[in-house]
UniProtKB/TrEMBL annotation:
Keyword Cell membrane listed: yes
Biological classification of the source: Eukaryota, Metazoa, Chordata, Craniata, Vertebrata
Transmembrane segments: 26-48, 60-81, 101-120, 141-164, 197-228, 240-260, 266-287
Name of protein: Olfactory receptor
Annotated source species: Leptobrachium leishanense
One Pfam family, short name: 7tm_4
C-alpha cells in the first residue's frame, strides 16, 4: 500500500454538532442567519473602506483584509455544515477534507499574523503619530499583508502535505462538524508521532510569535500613555476595538486547547471562533469607529441614490 494513496478511505464521515434530528433544523436556521450576517457585515465594511478615500490608510487596509479573511474563513466551514444539517449521511470526500483543512489553516494562520501586524500599527499610531504615515505607509502595509498570506500558505501547505503522505485504511469517522488536521491524523493506520510533533511545534510558534509582537506593541502603548493627561488618553480608544477582537480570536484558541476539553465543549468553542467571532468583528470596528460609521452612512445614501427612483 503506497503512502499518500487514499484508495481505501475515500470519504470521511462527520458526526456534526448533534445527532438529535429535532434540533438540527433549528441549528440550520440559526447558523444560516449568522453566516448571512457575517458575509453581509464584512462585505459592507470592505465596500465602505474602498469607497471612502479618507479611509485609504494602513489601518483600514488591514481592517478590510481582516474582513475578507473572515468571509473566506466562515465560507470554508459553514456551507458544508449547513448542508449536513439537512442530510442523514454527513460525509465529505477525502480530497475535500484535505482542501477544507488547507483553507482553514491558511486563513486562520493569516488572520493570526494580520492581528499581530494590526497591533504594531496601533503602537506606531499612538507612540509615533508624527511618523505614522512614513513608518506605516501603504506599500509597507501591503508587504505585511502579503507576508501574512504567504506565511499562512506555506505552513498550511506543509501541514496538508504531511497528512496526505499518511495511509488511511480503517476508521473514517471524525467527531466534529468540519475536518481538522489533528482529528484526521488520528484516523491514520501509520505512526503519526512525527506529524504530531511537527503540528504542535508549528501551531505553538504560530501563536507564540504573533502574541509576542502583540504584547510588545501594547506594552509600548501603555508606557507611552503613562503620565499623560486624561485628554490624551483618547488616543488609546483606537486600540480598544482591536483589543476586543484579539480577545475573541486568541481566547478560545489559547485557553481551550483540543486535548484539555471534552468533544462537546470543544465543538461549542469551535462554533464561537468559526462563526460568532467573524460575525462580531465588523460590528465591533464599526460601532466604535466614527470614521467607519460615517463611511457606512455615505455608502447607504449612495445605494439609495442608485437604486431608489
Amino acid at each position: 500500500m503506497k503512502s499518500g494513496n487514499s484508495s481505501v478511505v475515500t470519504h470521511i464521515i462527520l458526526l456534526g454538532l448533534s445527532a438529535d434530528t429535532s434540533i438540527q433544523l433549528v441549528l440550520f436556521h440559526v447558523f444560516l442567519f449568522i453566516y448571512m450576517t457575517t458575509v453581509a457585515g464584512n462585505t459592507l465594511l470592505i465596500m465602505a473602506v474602498n469607497s471612502d478615500t479618507r479611509l485609504h490608510s494602513s489601518m483600514y487596509l488591514f481592517l478590510s483584509n481582516l474582513s475578507f479573511i473572515d468571509i473566506c474563513y466562515t465560507s470554508t466551514i459553514v456551507p458544508k455544515m449547513l448542508m449536513d444539517f439537512l442530510v442523514s449521511r454527513k460525509s465529505i470526500s477525502f480530497t475535500g477534507c484535505l482542501m477544507q483543512i488547507y483553507f482553514y489553516l491558511l486563513l486562520g494562520e493569516s488572520e493570526c499574523l494580520l492581528l499581530a501586524f494590526m497591533a504594531y500599527d496601533r503602537y506606531v499610531a499612538v507612540c509615533n503619530p508624527l511618523r505614522y504615515n512614513v513608518i506605516m505607509s501603504i506599500p509597507t502595509c501591503a508587504r505585511l499583508i502579503a507576508i501574512a498570506w504567504m506565511t499562512g500558505g506555506i505552513i498550511s501547505s506543509f501541514d496538508v502535505l504531511f497528512l496526505y503522505r499518511l495511509i488511511f485504511c480503517g476508521p473514517n469517522v471524525i467527531d466534529h462538524f468540519f475536518c481538522e488536521a489533528p482529528s484526521l491524523a488520528q484516523l491514520s493506520c501509520t505512526d503519526i508521532y512525527v506529524n504530531n510533533i511537527i503540528m504542535f511545534v508549528g501551531s505553538t510558534l504560530l501563536i507564540f510569535c504573533p502574541v509576542v509582537l502583540i504584547l510588545f506593541s501594547y506594552a509600548q502603548i501603555i508606557i507611552c500613555l503613562v503620565g499623560l493627561r486624561s485628554g490624551h488618553l483618547k488616543s488609546f480608544s483606537t486600540c480598544l476595538s482591536h483589543l476586543i477582537v484579539l480577545i475573541l480570536f486568541f481566547g478560545p484558541v489559547t485557553f481551550m486547547p483540543r486535548y484539555l476539553v471534552k468533544d462537546t465543549t470543544y465543538k461549542i468553542v469551535s462554533v464561537f471562533y468559526t462563526l460568532v467571532t467573524p460575525m462580531l468583528n465588523p460590528l465591533i470596528y464599526s460601532l466604535r469607529n466614527k470614521a467607519v460609521k460615517q463611511a457606512l452612512l455615505r455608502l447607504g445614501r449612495g445605494a439609495d441614490f442608485i437604486f431608489i427612483p
